[in-house]
Specification:
The protein is about 60% helix and about 10% strand. It has 24 helices and 10 strands. The strands form 3 sheets. A 4-stranded antiparallel β-sheet has the order 2-5-1-6, with helices on both faces. Strands 8-9-7-10 form a 4-stranded antiparallel β-sheet. A two-stranded antiparallel sheet has the order 3-4. Helix 23 (about 695-725) packs antiparallel against helix 24 (about 730-760). The longest helix is centred in the last third of the chain and has 36 residues, at about 595-630. It is elongated, with a radius of gyration of 32 Å. The two termini are about 25 Å apart. The mean pLDDT is about 85.
């Protein structure tokens, strides 16, 4: 039935080949036009698991207390002392410039120049206070001395002022929409404005500008991602050389390259059609689409050359190659597509878009490289390769065929089992989340990470903040038992390793109470009477971010030393333990908001998705292989080497200190999806020979003769292409390059060595 369908399709396509090629040309022009409208898109919400319980809390209170999408700008005086006229003039200009950039929530901009930055002091007749920078401030020595005194009274050293007085901070929260256009905030354009209007205008020999926050990080990642164009060009050049060495023909080199580029154009055009942009992660997918397309194109060239060598005309050889490769190639590409689609199970927008992008790209290869390519080849003249140079290759295939004998198969399988055992031991140590300080997508020495390290070293707060939202009842902050419980919670968490400092309504109210009692430290406690408590809490405005309008929600801010996986996990576990103990009908301690709250939710989403994703990937590949081969043994022979290589890849991640994060989670699925191609091509040829009663070794030897060169060539070409990512400006791309290079090479070796060894055990006797 399937053979009849393939034969009918072949007859139709090759009878109408000129019209079919013209239809491909029209589709390419249309999708190329669509691709020209593709834009970079790095929206903040795409990077978070919106349905996670932490993110539900985050979104519920985002408007009142700000979210995780914040910007911190540290203005540094290179002399080490901010108290000079030039510094304060620059700080004012930076504050004003940031305030007026579209997309900034102006009510949330804070610095020394914010009206909400105030000090309070105890005087003879009660309290006195006002803005840290008074309305009549001038940058005279006397004026600067007044500001220095106010800073010390305000208790903002370490928050808005560096602990060594070498820098001052300007912070802001970003909105989800551009208020001028009503469109979603263009994160990359915003990052470009920060670079141009802040660092570009105000940084000089006397002033240094340090900027961190999601938007700036996304902008730096997008800037680094532009290097992908160069890597793409290098990959095309390297691939062209490799294909020429394989085919010994300029025409047969250009045709698979052109068809693979057509697949890339179709993929990019289809992204625009479905309404997606191109984010820094999915910008790597076009390269993979190109590489996968070339690998299947090489299989087609190899098949055509063999048929021509057997005496067929080019058109007849192309038709026969189409007929023989449509099923195994289609199954391999469908396995890739379905494997990538399993990433949709991960509730993170950026991964879901990557899944759709990769699936579209691989799906169109079925048309461009399994249909268009043989049609184009049929219009060319293909010459058979000279047979006199085949002796050395034949000797290699004969030696490799020994892996399909029981004697060598046993050795291979024992070695594979030992490798798997060692790999599994290391893979079990793999951590979830980021394992390095700073932005994990960027290298240690990147400007963004150097800015992060500067701010971390000079301030007691950074963007590594987690917010625990305390939900109570209206006017809850006027009850002593409520604030006491919050204070106890804060004290417990503050003494957790990894927590640098904390802040809450309870701790600030204690300081205010001490102020009402001549600043005596003995009175730094929570008043027991409601009147005294109201007096203390009443001094803390809602603009402080410590309480909402009716005092029913009171966040507890946890400032962490970093956002490494182990730090986040330790703090989250502590908060969960305390919440389980302290929660009651009136008071709930809910995780989590703030940048680290988002990271914690992401880490948990990745951890939860890891096993289901692997099950979906292998399940999809298993079903498609079973349909194709109609044999459990054949299906297991293809999948088992893939599973071993996946385990070894996770062990490699542990050895290289690469955590399982949003950027690395898809790599395993990509590696499995692409790696299955090798086994399918080898075993599809073996299966035909085995059904004819041929011994396993002979069947494998024949498969190597027909497909071995193309399989090895494909593995090497894919590996060499992604190995150029080692030199990327993006660390996550470098990590993906290392892992994909490993998986492409080792999956190829698995198909050449482990698969025939399994076959030697499964098919001991001729059928």
């Amino acid at each position: 039935m399937l053979d009849k369908l393939v034969n009918g399709l072949e007859s139709f396509l090759f009878r109408q080949r000129a019209y079919v090629i013209f239809a491909f040309l029209l589709a390419t022009l249309f999708l190329g036009f669509q691709a020209s409208h593709l834009k970079m898109d790095a929206a903040f919400v795409k990077n978070i698991p919106l349905n996670h319980s932490y993110m539900q809390t985050y979104l519920k209170h985002q408007k009142q207390f700000g979210g995780a999408n914040s910007i911190m700008v540290a203005v540094e005086d290179t002399s080490g002392n901010i108290f000079n006229p030039n510094f304060f003039d620059t700080l004012k200009q930076v504050h004003d410039q940031l305030f007026f950039i579209p997309g900034v929530d102006r009510a949330q901009v804070k610095s020394l120049y914010s009206p909400s930055t105030r000090f309070t002091e105890v005087v003879e007749d009660g309290f006195a206070g006002g803005p840290v920078i008074p309305a009549d401030f001038s940058t005279t020595p006397a004026g600067l001395e007044v500001v220095r005194s106010n800073i010390e009274k305000a208790g903002i050293v370490g928050r808005l002022i560096a602990e060594d007085y070498s820098a001052a901070m300007v912070t802001a929260q970003l909105m989800d929409f551009d208020p001028q256009t009503g469109e979603p905030l263009d994160t990359l354009a915003f990052a470009s404005q920060l670079e141009k209007e802040l660092r570009g205008q105000y940084e000089n020999d006397e002033i240094k500008i340090h900027i961190i926050g999601f938007a700036k990080m996304a902008g730096d990642v997008a800037e680094g991602a532009k290097g992908v164009v160069l890597f793409f060009a290098i990959a095309i050049l390297v691939t062209a050389v490799m294909v020429y060495l394989f085919s010994h023909s300029v025409k047969l080199t250009l045709l698979p390259l052109v068809c693979s580029l057509v697949a890339v154009v179709w993929q990019l055009g289809l992204l625009t059609v479905v309404g997606f942009g191109l984010d820094p992660m999915s910008i790597l997918i076009p390269f993979l689409v190109f590489a996968i397309g070339v690998s299947h194109g090489v299989q087609m060239i190899n098949a055509v050359r063999r048929r021509v060598g057997e005496g067929e005309s080019t058109k007849s050889a192309a038709a026969l190659a189409f007929r023989s490769l449509l099923i195994p190639g289609g199954v391999a590409l469908l396995s890739d597509t379905v494997g990538f689609m399993t990433l949709l199970a991960i509730d993170i927008g950026i991964i879901r878009e990557l899944a759709i992008s990769a699936s579209l790209g691989v799906a169109v290869i079925i048309l461009t490289n399994l249909v268009l390519l043989p049609l184009l080849i049929s219009f060319t003249e293909v010459k058979a390769l000279p047979t006199k140079s085949n002796g050395k290759v034949e000797a290699i295939w004969r030696k490799l065929s020994c892996f399909a004998t029981p004697k060598y198969a046993l050795v291979v399988l024992i070695a594979t089992a030992l490798l798997y055992g060692l790999g599994l031991q290391q893979a079990n140590k793999m951590k979830i989340g980021d394992l390095q300080g700073g932005a994990p997508a960027l290298h240690f020495d990147s400007r963004y990470n150097q800015d992060t390290f500067y701010i971390t070293d000079h301030f007691s707060i950074t963007t590594d903040v987690m917010t625990v939202i305390v939900e109570a009842f209206p006017e809850a902050c006027t009850y002593h038992d409520v604030l006491t419980q919050i204070d106890e919670f804060e004290w417990q968490v503050a003494n957790t390793p990894g927590v640098e400092s904390t802040a809450s309504l309870a701790s600030i109210a204690k300081r205010v109470n001490a102020g009402f009692n001549e600043g005596n430290p003995k009175w730094q406690v929570l008043p027991r009477t409601t009147a005294s408590l109201v007096q203390a809490v009443g001094q803390i405005p809602t603009t402080s971010g410590l309480l909402d309008g009716n005092c029913s929600v009171m966040p507890v801010y946890l400032f962490l030393k970093d956002h490494k996986a182990e730090t986040i996990e330790l703090v989250i576990d502590k908060v969960k333990t305390l919440s389980a103990k302290m929660d009651n009908d009136k008071l709930k301690f809910k995780l989590a908001s703030g940048p680290v709250g988002v990271m914690a939710a992401t880490n948990e989403a990745v951890a939860e998705a890891q096993l289901p994703m692997m099950l979906y990937v292998y399940g999809a590949v298993f079903v498609l292989c079973l349909i194709s081969f109609r044999s459990i043994r054949a299906t297991v022979a293809v999948i088992l080497p893939l599973y071993v290589v996946s385990t070894l890849a996770q062990a490699l991640m542990t050895q290289l200190d690469i955590g399982l994060a949003v950027s690395t989670l898809p790599v395993i699925a990509l590696g499995v999806g692409i790696g299955v191609d090798y086994g399918i091509y080898i075993l599809s040829t073996m299966a035909v020979k085995l059904r004819d009663g041929m011994p396993v070794q002979t069947a494998y030897h024949q498969a190597l003769i027909e497909r071995g060169s193309a399989v090895i060539f494909t593995g090497l070409t894919l590996a060499i292409g992604v190995s150029t990512w080692f030199f990327s400006a993006l660390k996550f791309q470098m990590d993906m390059g290392i892992l994909l290079t490993f998986m492409f090479l080792v999956n190829m070796l698995g198909a050449i060595i482990i698969l025939p060894a399994i076959g030697a055990i499964f098919w001991r006797k001729p059928r």
